Amino acid sequence: MVDYTEKLSIRSQCRMLGIHRSGLYYAPVQESEENLLLMRLLDERYLDYPTHGVLQMQDYLLDAGYEVNHKRVRRLLRLMGLLAIYPKKNLSKLGKAEYIYPYLLRNLMIVRSN
Description:
Layout: H1 10-17, H2 21-25, H3 33-48, H4 54-63, H5 70-80
C-alpha cells in the first residue's frame, strides 16, 4: 500500500496507514538449508513415531549424524507445530473413592475472619 513514487513522504504514508517504518523495511530471515533438512527428517520420524518427544528426536538426529542440541530440536518442532502424543491427565472424571465428602462451606455466610 505504500507507494515509493508518491509525492507524499514514506513517513507520512506509514503514519496514515498506522504502521511503523521499520516494519516496512524489514524482510524476515528464511530458515537455513540445514534447518529445512532437519525439519524434513523430524517430520518423517514423527509420522512413524508420533509419541516421541524432543529428547527422542534429538537421539534420532544424533544417530543420523547431525550434531544438534535439544533447544534447537524443540524450536524446530514448535515451528512445525508438532507435539508428542501421550496420555494426559483426565481431571474431569471423578476418582474411585467409595464416598465423596460434601463441601461443608457451600451455604455458609462468611462475615468475619477466623
